[in-house]
Design goal:
The chain is an alpha/beta fold and 180 residues long. It has one domain: Vaccinia Virus protein VP39 (Rossmann fold), CATH 3.40.50.150. 33% of the residues lie in helices and 31% in strands. It is built from seven helices and seven strands; from the N terminus they run H-H-E-H-E-H-E-E-H-H-E-H-E-E. It is globular and about 35 Å long. The structure holds S-adenosylmethionine. S-adenosylmethionine binds next to helix 5. The site of S-adenosylmethionine has 19 residues, from helix 5.
């Protein structure tokens, strides 16, 4: 577990700077946001600076949760399993998942855990809410799983990531909109 040896801020896949152009198309600061498996990502703290005051971060690692709380005391961070989200039905405008479903898909009970997670995501999202999932898998690798829930639409965007002076193709961002 990386957080035991290094509890410093760390972002998987992409930085806030590279993610922000996509996020700003779908999110506004009054939205309620759930960060699924936040680890020690800086994303919620940057979003807080951008005016997103209604955010909750969850992770099942108590070490990651404590690290997050120590680094960013203004954030709401809870120890919670994505397969058993203790939030009300239809209560969240947007769920951001950067590398977490990918991580769940590597667990021993992967197919079951991924399906349960997806059904929890769908349950807590408001009608018209969005599940924004970042993965290095393309649609072909995630379509069958995502289609286990009913979405009004699934859009896929590829982000570009900056490395020094150059840019390169980054991960895919899936934007799944819950039916109204
Ligand atoms: C690859 S890391 C991504 C962390 C962060 N989202 C980022 O982009 O830097 C996956 C995170 O998901 C968490 N995680 C994995 N399975 C989980 C589950 N079932 N419930 C809650 N968190 C989980 C891990 O503890 C880890 O912090």
């Amino acid at each position: 577990m990386r957080y035991t040896s290094d509890p410093r801020p760390y972002d998987f896949y992409l930085s806030h700077t590279d993610f922000k152009p996509v996020l700003s198309k779908y999110l506004i600061p009054t939205h309620s946001i759930l960060h699924l498996g936040n680890g020690t990502s800086r994303l919620p703290s940057f979003m807080l600076n951008d005016g997103f005051t209604n955010q909750i971060c969850i992770d099942y690692s108590p070490i990651a949760v404590k690290a997050c709380q120590d680094i960013w005391p203004k954030l709401v961070v809870k120890c919670m399993d994505a397969t058993k989200i203790t939030l009300d039905d239809n209560s969240i405008d947007a769920i951001i998942d950067k590398a977490t479903l990918d991580s769940i898909l590597c667990e021993t009970d992967a197919p079951n855990a991924a399906l349960t997670t997806l059904s929890e995501i769908h349950r807590v999202l408001k009608s018209g809410g969005v599940y924004i999932m970042v993965s290095y898998s393309d649609l072909g690798g995630r379509e069958e799983l995502l289609n286990k829930c009913s979405w009004e639409e699934i859009k896929v965007e590829r982000v570009t990531i900056s490395t020094g002076d150059s840019k390169k193709d980054g991960p895919f961002v899936f934007i799944c909109k819950k039916c109204n």
